[in-house]
Design brief:
The protein is about 40% helix and about 15% strand. The chain is α/β, with parallel strands linked by helices. β4, α3 and β5 form a beta-alpha-beta unit. The chain is globular and about 45 Å long. The relative contact order is 0.14.
Length: about 260
């Protein structure tokens, strides 16, 4: 598994976990700014410079990340995962909670289901994944700015079509893994407001974790870090350093209402 790396090796370690249709380079700007941290961003099997490594399963990929973490200089690391990477992050919290210091799970929640039509559509699109039409369609879904379209398309073409299909179907078929109620690390669940189906899943996960919080990025979608990169960076920097989160991020109304009723 190829690892993008930056920062001092004696600093706190952050492991960035990328989303679908991209690779570890999606984190390059945040990694450059986190100059006091040792930043690691793996390319998952079948993605980026791990293109020729076969994607086997979410569990196997999580095991490979655990191996990466075990070779760092620190007993614990921070993790920041988006979408596919957020699902891997949830698996890491389940499988190796003692290795995680603080975590951000962005745009991901379990249990998740994948409709049969989505599976069929993925297999239909698979041979055409690297075409301009498909890359531009996915870019529009993620609200990628025009100036970033070429880089986004290049990243998409670094993804193995078969690994893309398998990984997307698998993460959208995950059940809640065991042991999450034993996770004591501070965990931030966050998602864009327009991704309405994910927030309830995150709330239920946060309710079983003693040190978890949930936030929403108002008026934004699934890949909101593309829409508001500065806000996303400030969120990451604040959470990793145990500072107050940006005021732009809001607590879900469901949690506010529940807190009021409890009072």
């Amino acid at each position: 598994m190829f690892i993008h790396e930056s920062g001092p090796t004696d600093g706190p370690t952050v492991v960035f976990l990328h989303g679908t249709a991209t690779n570890g380079t999606m984190w390059k700007d945040e990694m450059k700014r986190l100059t006091n941290y040792h930043c690691l961003a793996p390319d998952f099997p079948g993605y980026g410079q791990s293109y020729h490594q076969k994607w086997v399963s979410v569990d196997e990929t999580a095991n490979q990340i655990i191996d990466v973490i075990s070779r760092t200089r620190h007993r614990q690391v921070h993790i920041v995962g988006l979408s596919l990477g957020g699902m891997i992050g949830i698996m890491l919290l389940s499988k190796a909670p003692d290795l995680i210091d603080r975590a951000i799970i962005d745009g991901a929640g379990v249990p998740s289901t994948v409709p049969i039509l989505m599976k069929v559509g993925l297999y239909i699109v698979q041979p055409f994944l690297h075409t301009n039409f498909v890359t531009k369609t996915i870019a529009r879904f993620y609200n990628v700015p025009d100036e970033d379209l070429d880089e986004f398309s290049q990243n998409m073409r670094s993804v193995s079509p078969s690994s893309f299909t398998r990984s997307v179907i698998q993460v959208n078929s995950l059940r809640r893994p065991p042991g999450l109620d034993k996770v004591t690390s501070p965990v931030l669940f966050v998602t864009g407001e327009k991704e309405k189906a994910t927030t309830p899943l995150q709330i239920r996960l946060a309710e079983i974790m003693p040190n978890a919080q949930v936030r929403i990025a108002p008026n934004m979608g699934h890949a909101w870090m593309i829409e508001a990169p500065e806000l996303h960076y400030r969120m990451v920097e604040a959470w990793l350093s145990n500072k107050p989160l940006p005021e732009e991020l809001v607590i879900p109304k469901e949690l506010i209402k529940a807190g009021s009723e409890a009072a």
